[in-house]
Known about the structure:
The chain has about 1400 residues and is mostly helical. It contains 63 helices and two strands.
Amino acid sequence: MDLIQDLRFLRLNEISEGWVDAVWDLEFTERKEFDDPVGEELETRDSQDFQNLHQRLLVFIQENAANEQSVWAMLQENGIPVKTLVAVLSFFVFGGKFKNAGVKQRVNALQAASLYLLLLGMPGSIANKAFHGGLFDLCTSIWTHCWPQETGKKRKKVAPKNSQAAGKKPKPQRKFAEKDLEEGEEEDDDEEEEDAAEHFSSQDLVEIREAVVLLVKSLLILLQTFSLKDLPQNVNNITRVFIKLLYFEPIIGEINFAEQDINRMRSVPEMAFHGLQLLYSAKHGDQKQTLLRIFHHLLYVILMMTKNRNLKPTLLVLSQGVLTTRNQALHFVSHMVNEGKEETLSCVRILLQHICDQMVEKCEFRSHGAHAVKTLSGLLSSSGYAWFVKWLSAFSKHSKMVGRLFSVDVVMALLEQPERSPEGCDPDLVNYLPYKYLIQEVLFARRMDVSPTVQGHALACLAQCLELPSMNATKAVQGLFTTIGSQSGFHAQTTEGNLTSHPTYRTLPFRTMELSNTQSSPCEGKVNLEHILSRMKHPNTNVRKLALQALVGLLKHNVVPTNSENLSVLAARCRDPAVSVKKKALQCVGELLALNPGCTNVQKAWLEGVCSALMDSESSVQEKALEALEEKLLSQIKPFTSDYLDMNQTLAWDLLHHLCHDCHKLSRYFSKAFEIWHKQNRFTPSFFNALTSHTEAPHAAGAWLLLSKVTMSSAKLPYGKVLDAWDKIMTNLNEVNTKTLCNVLCVIGDIAPHLNPDTQELIIRDLMSQLKTFTLPLDVVNAAVEALVQYGRSEDVNLTQSFLNQHCGELVSLCESFLASIILKKYGKQNLDEDLMVKYLHTLGTASVNCPAKISKRTILLVESILTTNSDKLADVQGELPASLPLSQFRQNSFSTKIRAHGVLTLGKLCLQHEELVQKYLPVFARELEEGTEVSVRNNVVVIMCDLCIRYTNSVDNYIPNISARLQDSSATIRENTLIMLTNLLQEEYVKWKGSLFFRFITALGDPVPFISNMCEYCLLNVLLKKNPDMFSQHFIECIFYFHSYTKHKSYNKFPQSDKEMLSSSLKGPQNQQKRFHIYRFLLEHCTDAQRFNITNKINQTVLECFADQELPLDTEGSDLLSEIFAVLSLKEIKLQAMKSKAAAEGEDVEEENMAKAVLEAAQKKVVSQVHKRVLVEHTVPLIISLKHRLEQNRSPVLKDLMAYLQVIMQDYKNEVNTIFAGDEQLASELEFALKEAERLEGMVDLIETCSIQQVPKTPTAAQSAPLASPARPPLVLPLRFATPQPPQRNTLSSLLPLSERRPNTLLRQKDQKRSNYLEETVIVKGGVDTRAISTPIGVANMNLTFDGQVSVILSEKGTSSVDENNVVCVLPSEQNASRVKQWNIQSPLRKSKRTPLQDE
């Protein structure tokens, strides 16, 4: 009776039956208010009454469990209708749904719901009609309305309400879809709940929480006794409630999922997990279906998403609470698998599939998702794990980029697990267990992906595989480069120095050689390496950067050899256009050097990369290079001791040794570092003392190199030690290396201002004595003369010039006397010492630059005679030499080519100081360039003329065409030097883009030597285009005329040039078509959209109009030019980039953070498309129609090119052909038919590409599976005589011609028989064709998931599972039967129109 007493506060006997019936009639969908004052009295009830009733009901259940006394009988005995009790409880429950409900109402609602759930748990609740599905769902979910919870979503920004905003008229609202409205309403509800939470005190929240805990406990008690077997919808709703309760409050510590006592559970999420376990009971329905339902909802917990009904999942804001809940969900799945054993494994497989399929592109989510896959896959048996790996291999070829990207993450996560043993595994799946399959067949295959993001990620992960502790993972990577590793392992260790690195596995596996009729390369490892090296030149910056990481990983572990070829590619990336790639390359070469400090090739690559980065325009790259140099070189200069040099010091002196010898060209860049360090005052007296102590060490060459860089900017050098070293060098001059001697002379010259006169005189005497011997190498002569000039410098210019005239003039006199003794004597050329002659000529040229007054006409004539036949005449001249001899060009004489080449350089140096000589010899130089046969002479003439251009620009300007013509010289050396020097002249604006210079320069892009073509591209893009951004667009149209040698246009190709020049630089003819279009594409690729638009319009206005108006004839030359122009206009590179959808092109999904950019691109594309269409309709189409009529009149073969061009420009307007070409219905019909015909041919090509003519799979069971079609690698079609028979295609050329131009049917048949295009010859590879005909296409991968409506495993493209049906819950997707390929039935609309009257007759 105590229970009845506690029920009295509900005033059940005073409730009218009409109100109760009305509540039940509403099906508990809304709250029914009371008509009498009873409702107001009930609302004032305290929550303590509910608590007392709840406790009494619990006690009643416990006390009467044994005697089975029914509460329903007690209620009936006391005249309390069950319907009334349920209706009153629903009244309180609905009170908690109001958004403005107070704490009391919310607590009462939760406690009323708890009472209802306790009542349902008592036997007889169904018989007494206490259960109602709608009210049950309301009671289980009422806490979501009562508890002010955080949704995890970002709050909307509320714009400030100012007067300006208030004055604006509201814009008309767009009509949202129902789904969008629901999203908006839910977000508004969330915001209101969050705002309401601010009005509750902490005590209020504690009170509400206690009520929620009471409700959850009541629900758990209900699930222990009440069966929901026939209520699947309610079970699904309860599952949703428990999933939401997981985020109710933070989880502290680990949850003990084996705990069964509700009262000992510490948190609501722990109770929620226990509730999910209770649902997994036979009394609540089929256990497997229940587990699938639970895993489905846990899927979004693991993915850290939130999903409302029928809405797309949204990402949660990552927080510690979200991550903790995710981790506990994974532990719960593991617990369920351990409890359920085998029957739960099929559900885990499905969960794994859907985790992969619903992953997003964000890096953090992918990382946590891969960890989840690793954890869950560890629960599978060996057969189940192999099954999942097989499925993952197919999934890695998914059509969506994020799927392929995530498959790489999953592979890396699986590699962290121990390798599975084949024991107990299905024999058909054993091949999927080893690491080798994951790395070689799944991970490495993504290097060819269509998406740069996936490519780069796969390459980066390949390098990470080498860092794994597993031996088998390293061997798997090694197997990809077997050929490379086998050739380089021992050789690198014995010849390249001491290579200290991680353990590697160089042993070649002794395996069966597979023979097949596929023409695979025997050097597969070499091909793989070449592919990685090619990725380092990829247009995408991220791909290049990650390819660097992959290559460095292979080099660090000796998978590929550390030879100069591989390292040079790495060092070249230090000059990459992207700053991030340059920094990554500097980091990579630094890592390699730290790992292999004794490897010569690594040291050279490090120097090449770091020294070139010193000249970078980006300050951050320059600073990084300076830091590397300071760490490896500057900080390692310590006082010399003969006892010991540590590893870092040894490395520093080895690097300096390379700079002195093998890498001496890099020392020019090295000077930049010392200039910066000098400004930063990095050089101290102790540094100079330490440096000079090494001048007498075995590595003295490096010390002199450093001294030569620092002496010019510092006065802190210990000059006494330097002079002592100089004296020792002078006594053993022949033993000193040439480069070292040059550095010593540089130091001696730089310290000249700091020496006393006596010391200076001694050094001058030493220098002159050595120069007079004419035994010094040529480079040393230059350095010695330069040092001599340093000792003659003074503030008085006259004194300086007097010093130079005295000493350099003496050298000139000696050289003149020697030349006269050779040239003027009749037998002077007998027994001529060629090297000595060269040294005299070189010394004469070097000294003459400093004393022009000492150069006589006799000297000039003597040098001139070396280059002509005048030397023979001068030998017969008696007495004084004539003032000059007639000279038209250089002629071969008795002197060797080497002497003549140095004679040209000497004559050029004489010209630098005498302008009258320039006017005399420039025509001779130009003629020598055209008719000379000696490569070294022509090369030196180019050098001299470019030097003269700097000094005498106006005089040499007329001879620039002669210089630029050497870009087509037969000698690669001359072409390279000409390209470099012309680039320097153009950069410094000594030369302008006039005449044919641009066109000759651009032809170097097609140079047969790759180094020259690459250098030309670098000079154009990185040097010249930055100076003149419109350079390409200004010269593009004229390029077409120039390369075709077409001169009939009134404006283009009108600059003066001889027939010989035109012929030498012409690219006319079909044999040069590839070169021409390579240049066209290069120019267009580096034009802006505005420039492309202007080029197209200008071609229409200045070229096509001239042909349409008959200003230009349609002769052979004109037809070839017009055909070329239509081909250029059809290039994809000329299409505006704004009209191309980047995301659509790559097949990548648009993420939320990129949504604004995507919207902007879409708007830009729309505007550009409208402008393009307007120009097309108003200008291009009328012009094309007019030109087409003229071509038809002349029966020109160019008509087919015009139609092909129209097809290209109408691709974006396929449905508007008749509208755009309304002025010419015949052309519209022909074009529409041509577009359909092209679409038909494209469809046939797609069918051919999807045929099952593929390589033999490497695993025995791969042929049995149906992997998804890879979007990256097309099927392999191998040439062979045996061809698959195919019907001949219709002659597409005739279909593009107008009807009036088509030949009779007999001629067409003959032409078709000769030119019909068959399929490319193919070979059927063994195992490639299963049971289908060759022409049967493979269907597009369909991975439709039915986790919402039905529960399905992700199947292969055939719609069948690759494992036993008993092991996988499999409900086939609704779209199982893929649509078959339809037959095309296309015919010309003109033919149809002609046949219609015949049919009518």
